[in-house]
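As a representative case, the lines below give one protein's residues and fold tokens.
***
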Amino acid sequence: MAATSGSGTGTLLLADISGYTAFLQAVAEAHAEDLRAGRFVPEAYPLLTSLLDGVVDRIAPPFEVSEVEGDAVFAFAAEGSLALRGPSVIAFLAGCYQAYRARLQKAMDVMPCACDACSSIGGLELKFVVHRGTYIVQSIAGRQSLLGPDVTVAHLLLKNHVRDLIGRVAYALLTESAVTHLEVPVDHALAITEEYEHFPAIRGYVIPFPPN
């Protein structure tokens, strides 16, 4: 039951682990017999949970987590609550990515299973979408749940054409509205335009993160 509701404007952040679903499927297939017998839980599963926990730890604060959506963390910062501006925005995202890579390396180091599926955990990458817009907020079970067209846009941007520009690497995709509001320098970013049904074209900028 919703305890409170209202509307707001702010910065929306999605941190998504690319390849998460395919990885889980591969692990499930590789260990299908043991899973059916209920004999054990593949070590890859708690290690993935640890990766998501690490993402949450890095982004909250300054953002407030709204939901953990399977392979993604959705967070927001209400207008006036986010001190990040200019180059510090990029530094913050890069720091989140570096911490993720460090935790991923630890997961690889302690992975006890050497099968091809479990060993492929090192291929999981992290991507960010940053958007600014309005939203409707409801408090459900003590957590702020966000709704609205701009929330939908942020989620749609997880399915994009960035890979066509930079290949399979980690990156941050910031919409034009986020770049303008947060005063993010984009002189060396790659411009991109994404189009989705029912929405006007969305212009943004892509900042790749080199692997550690």
User: Anything to note?
Assistant: The mean pLDDT is 89. The helical segments are 20-30, 32-37, 44-59, 87-110, 116-119, 149-156, 162-166, 176-182. Residues 90 and 153 are 21 Å apart (CA to CA). Residues 2-209 form a domain with the Alpha-Beta Plaits fold (CATH 3.30.70.1230).
